[in-house]
């Protein structure tokens, strides 16, 4: 009997319509993308970059080839020569095929000197394949591009100094977190 | 038209090829349907349009690198895939993650269950004709994906767990945000129920559609909410507890009739239970490390090192090698299953002692659920086929692998 009255009075449908009516007076949650952008969380795995070292002004990479070994999609190509005087490795070629990359972040996690980083930048789609094939200079340019638009004063990536993991497991150079201080003499864009 | 021809028309059946590009088949599922009038006589599912060879690909990668492949199996619940794989390797190696990692894994896998069920509800309701639920469910799913971004930096292909623990710790700030969001989602689930549960259109489209008895469901190998809708009490979280499920309190919702409506109610109640599990975990989570001491490094070797024995060489052109008889991952085989949002997700791994899996086999729930489509659709109308595909919650990335 109760069900019959409910059915005749359309209670079930009116209840649903009341919910939609209430939602009409709430603020919309959609983001109008090209005009407004959602703030990214720290540690977002976006475009690749080579960290420009403040001291030397070039990349930090020591050509240990660990990132190429660990990469699941094998999109990193490295070549190096050995300096005959010091015996140190000199990086001659470093290329990342960003179209093959799966953005797992293993490379930045395994890098012993925090040279490579996946920056918080995602708007780099293009019409040609070449512009998403980063060589050494392009990676350094990506970094300059990223750090110029970076809001904070010092930058530290979550995957460089993995929080919560025993420091002894990490390579020696990664045991104490050292943020990259943004240089103050860079031009401010506004 | 002659009389004979009309007689002939009555006898003939109508064959319709549904898919692989059909918005209601949830991916690239193809169905070969034979109709008499509008009633289904026979249905043959055709799979394999999204085959990428994940199982074979895993054989050429190290155990840590192969974990990233499991993201792409069931791409809307990648956390549980990762956890299932990591759990299988951990059981093979005999290591156990620390308690904090266990709780974090439970939190993220329940969040994944919520997001997966929300996407199921959205698409299932959209297929049947309720558009509003689609928009509401995606509103909440977006927030869960944002939590994943805060935790690990990616929204969909997370690669967050790691063999022997998880990769990065969760901030207390994020944990408190998740806790307060769980209160919101409990209210929102009531909203979805208000829109659907008593709605007469919804009831007439789902009640009595795709009925499957408990015996048939077990013999077809259904798992997860599709089995529990028929009233079978089978949940791996309760039967073989993994991670921190033995330390939290939750109910396993069961259906009675085994039709689409009961499976819908099962999943809705499961969403409530998931929210309660997440709340309990955040209350109980201990401090400490998140990676086991014995966990393999992320740059683990794929084979043992070869030792050059120069002294024993016969001639200068030859070099003698000796392989060290050292096992990176212990030899053996293991099958371990977890309760993924879709059902029982199992990983069978054979190890030959090297750093790469000798064989990895995935028991994907979606693939087995597809085999139940012919049985469920028997004698139903064409429009009900859509409802049945929706209720089984199929993701083709997992079925074709």
Provide structural commentary.
The complex is a heterodimer of chains A (190) and B (401). Chain A is an alpha+beta fold and 190 residues long. Chain A is 23% helix and 15% strand. Chain A has five helices and seven strands. A three-stranded antiparallel beta sheet of chain A has the order 2-3-5. In chain A, strand 2 and strand 3 form a beta hairpin. The radius of gyration of chain A is 25 Å and the shape is elongated. Chain A starts with a helix and ends in a 9-residue tail after the last strand. Chain B is an alpha+beta fold and 401 residues long. In chain B, 47% of the residues lie in helices and 14% in strands. In chain B, the strands form four sheets. Chain B has a three-stranded antiparallel beta sheet with strand order 1-2-3. Classes of the chains: A alpha+beta (190), B alpha+beta (401). Chain A binds chain B through residues 6-7, 11-13, 15-16, 19-20, 23, 29, 40-41, 43-45, 66, 69-73, 102-106, 109-110, 118, 158-159, 162-166, 169, and chain B through 61, 64-66, 68-69, 100, 132, 136, 139, 142, 146, 149-150, 152-154, 157, 159, 167-169, 191, 194-196, 198-200, 289-291, 293, 297-299.
């Amino acid at each position: 009997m109760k069900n019959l009255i409910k059915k005749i009075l359309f209670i079930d449908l009116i209840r649903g319509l009341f919910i939609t009516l209430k939602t009409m007076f709430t603020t919309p949650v959609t983001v109008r993308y090209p005009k407004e952008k959602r703030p990214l969380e720290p540690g977002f795995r976006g475009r690749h970059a080579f960290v420009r070292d403040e001291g030397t002004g070039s990349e930090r990479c020591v050509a240990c080839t660990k990132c190429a070994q660990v990469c699941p999609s094998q999109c990193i190509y490295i070549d190096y020569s050995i300096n005959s005087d010091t015996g140190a490795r000199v990086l001659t070629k470093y290329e990342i095929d960003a179209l093959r990359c799966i953005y797992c972040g293993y490379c930045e996690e395994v890098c012993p000197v925090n040279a490579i980083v996946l920056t918080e930048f995602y708007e780099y789609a293009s019409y040609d394949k070449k512009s998403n094939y980063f060589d050494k200079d392009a990676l350094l340019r990506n970094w300059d591009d990223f750090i110029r638009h970076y809001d904070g004063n010092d930058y530290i990536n979550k995957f460089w100094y993995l929080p919560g993991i025993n420091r002894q497991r990490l390579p020696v150079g990664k045991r104490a977190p050292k943020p990259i201080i943004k240089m103050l003499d860079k031009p401010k864009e506004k | 038209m002659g009389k004979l021809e009309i007689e002939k028309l009555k006898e003939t059946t109508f064959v319709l090829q549904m898919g692989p590009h059909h918005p209601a088949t949830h991916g690239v599922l193809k169905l070969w349907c034979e109709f008499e009038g509008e009633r289904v006589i026979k249905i043959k599912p055709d799979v394999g349009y999204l085959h990428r060879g994940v199982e074979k690909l895993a054989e050429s990668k190290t155990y840590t690198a192969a974990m990233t492949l499991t993201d792409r199996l069931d791409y809307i619940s990648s956390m549980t895939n990762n956890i299932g794989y990591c759990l299988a390797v951990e059981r093979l190696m005999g290591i156990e993650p620390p308690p904090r990692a266990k709780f974090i894994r439970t939190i993220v896998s329940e969040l994944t269950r919520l997001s997966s069920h929300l996407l199921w509800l959205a698409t299932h309701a959209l297929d049947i004709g309720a558009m509003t639920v689609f928009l509401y469910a995606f509103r909440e799913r977006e927030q869960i994906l944002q939590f994943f971004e805060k935790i690990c930096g990616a929204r969909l292909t997370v690669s967050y767990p790691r063999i022997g623990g998880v990769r990065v710790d969760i901030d207390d700030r994020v944990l408190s945000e998740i806790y307060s969001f769980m209160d919101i989602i409990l209210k929102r689930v009531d909203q979805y129920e208000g829109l659907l549960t008593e709605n007469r259109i919804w009831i007439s489209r789902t009640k009595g559609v795709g009925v499957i008895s408990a015996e048939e469901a077990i013999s077809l190998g259904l798992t997860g909410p599709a089995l529990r809708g028929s009233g079978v009490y089978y949940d791996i979280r309760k039967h073989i507890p993994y991670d921190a499920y033995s330390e939290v309190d939750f109910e396993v919702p069961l259906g009675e009739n085994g039709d689409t409506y009961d499976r819908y109610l099962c999943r809705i109640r499961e969403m409530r239970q998931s929210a309660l599990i997440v709340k309990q975990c955040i209350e109980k989570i201990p401090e400490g490390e998140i990676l086991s001491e014995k966990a393999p490094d992320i740059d683990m070797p794929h084979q043992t090192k070869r030792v050059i024995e120069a002294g024993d060489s016969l001639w200068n052109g030859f070099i003698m090698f000796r392989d060290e008889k050292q096992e990176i991952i212990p030899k053996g085989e293991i099958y371990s299953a977890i309760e993924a949002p879709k059902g029982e997700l199992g990983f069978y791994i054979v190890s030959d002692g090297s750093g790469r899996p000798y064989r990895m086999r995935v028991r994907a729930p979606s693939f087995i659920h597809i085999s139940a489509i012919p049985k469920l659709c028997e004698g139903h109308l064409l429009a009900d086929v859509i409802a049945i595909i929706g209720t089984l919650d199929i993701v083709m990335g997992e079925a074709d692998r």
